[in-house]
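Standup notes
- DV: blocked on the single-chain target, sequence here:
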Amino acid sequence: MNSAAMYPPVMAPQANMFGNVPGYEGTVPGGGGFLPPPMPTEPVAPPQPAPENPEWSIPSLSEDEARKAFKEFVSSHCCYSDAPVTQGVITSMEPFNTFRYRLETFTESRSTEWAQKPYEGEPADFYTQPAPQPWEVQATPPNLFSDHKVKIRVPFTSSVKECNTCHATGVEQCTECNGCGKKACWACDGTGVKLDAACSHCNGTGKESCSKCNGRGKKECQTCKGKRQLLTYIELKVEWKNNVEDHVVEHNSGLKTDKLCSVNGKELFKNSQNLVYPLFGFPNPGVSQASDRLIKEHQTKYGQTSRILQQRQTVELIPITRVNYEWKDNTHAYYVYGNEHKVNADDYPATCCCVIL
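- DV (later): unblocked, structure below
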């Protein structure tokens, strides 16, 4: 029997045919870059009003709360003495509450590449119908503002071809033994002699059967997994990504702004739309300016290579308190910040070096 009759006929298109698929020009193995999104067909929603009479203040931090946060901070450091906590005297507490504006832009981007996989009986539908355009292929997005990726075989682009790695044999030469089926004996390093006698492991031959191919000299083709044929198709990669950017209004407290990345504040405002509008007229002009700048930057940056599905903007008021205290006739300070009452004390005055023997 002719072994070729056991497999479906080869229906691979010419090498350049994928480049002729309308909407997929330039698709190559390894990817053809991100595809520009189509123009939006739905009108942009009108601006949403800001909340009425929001509460812009944060209850002031009490001395007891400041001292408790300081004590917990010191107890978490094995090299810190608690003397400044128990003996120090708080002299003043200065609030530096500040605004943080956050813009989230949830996008969908698409790219294509020429892909292949072992043929397992899938229909070869190349050119049986016009392939849908890249942005017409159905893809189910995840929850809003969450990252996710999927790969989709584009309908009507699949064809079958012989595996070019094994020339449709389903096997390839074993690289471990170079196709010999045997390799140098590990016990005698291929000499056939061990301890001045014939090696008992290889019976003095210096060779042993290759374990990678079971002595056959060939093993299953890694490209087609022994199927002899490949399904070749255009693969669509869809990526949903939540692009987040923060702006903290200058607070002049002395606390480094990057410390605020790990804490939360009091949420004052949040809204989401397909495209949000800048917060003009916000009580703090720094927030209005940041909102206007970031919204323009995001729409320019992400609108060219991806589709903006939703935007969300949030304003928080983050509590920051500088606590000044005296200990041993010297003045020191620490910061309590965020709803979590985190503490930063870069100049803590009672540290020691621990030596572990």
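- Follow-up: The two ends are 78 Å apart (CA to CA).
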